[in-house]
Design brief:
The structure is a single chain. This protein is mostly helical. The chain is built from nine helices and no strands. The protein has one domain. The chain starts with a helix and ends with a helix.
């Protein structure tokens, strides 16, 4: 049964990944009425991608295969459970956010904010199906807590964190909180570790300078994905 779920998830992930790449490639999207934001929704320059992302065909399949791998990881972790749709949704939304943040250093409100609502609804459905109301309560508290923590960090160091990162923290806190407080701590820490490692590699290869800035969203998402995917082995 698990093998069948994984196969279906991989096929679905490829389809979703291609759709995600198309949406990310069209960013900046037509403007809507904006709320307060920092690194969210405001178009940058002409929207031209950096040189390493100019190969449209290569990027399309990197995003598609990456999404399929995330879907497979979620299927292996959760199986045919009520929670699986929620984590598949996170994988698709997260890949879209990572692709846009890498290219434009933006985390669009039009993806992050609805994703929080949709994620909460899917986890509520899982809570109803599995009678896991304490997990849903913990998820909500974790989302609010990480939002507050990252908001304080963004106010202290606005050059390091933007409001897009703060809202993304709320989304990831929701999903990590469903798994437990250990996952919240590990997932949050993993994002900072991934960012530090990437920065060291780029500095060593002289791809960035000491004053260079890196988008934090992809590192946050990758750190959370690693903890979610292996939470069954990492956490009691």
């Amino acid at each position: 049964m698990t093998a069948l779920v994984v196969v279906v998830a991989v096929v679905l992930g490829l389809v979703v990944g291609l759709a995600v790449d198309r949406a990310a490639a069209r960013y900046p999207w037509p403007p809507q009425k904006r709320s307060w934001s920092s690194r969210a929704d405001t178009p940058v320059g002409t929207g031209v991608s950096p040189p390493e992302l100019h190969d449209r065909g290569t990027r399309r399949w990197v995003v598609a295969v990456g999404t399929a791998l995330l879907f497979a990881l979620a299927a292996l972790r959760f199986g045919a459970s009520w929670a699986l749709p929620a984590y598949l949704f996170l994988a698709g939304a997260g890949m879209c956010l990572a692709a846009i943040d890498l290219q434009h250093s933006k985390l669009p409100n039009r993806v992050v904010v609805p994703s929080i609502g949709i994620g909460a609804a899917l986890l509520a459905l899982a809570a109803a199906g599995e009678h896991a109301w304490p997990a849903l309560l913990r998820a909500g508290i974790a989302g609010v807590t990480l939002f507050a923590v990252f908001l304080v960090l963004a106010l202290i160091s606005p050059r390091s964190l933007g409001m897009g990162d703060v809202k993304l923290a709320a989304l990831l806190g929701l999903y990590l909180g469903w798994l437990g407080w250990g996952a919240v701590l590990l997932g949050t820490a993993a994002g900072f570790v991934v960012q530090a490692l990437v920065a060291l590699v780029l500095l060593a290869t002289r791809r960035i300078s000491l004053r260079g800035e890196l988008p934090f969203g992809p590192a946050m998402l990758l750190g959370a994905a690693l903890v979610i995917g292996w939470s069954g082995a990492l956490l009691p």
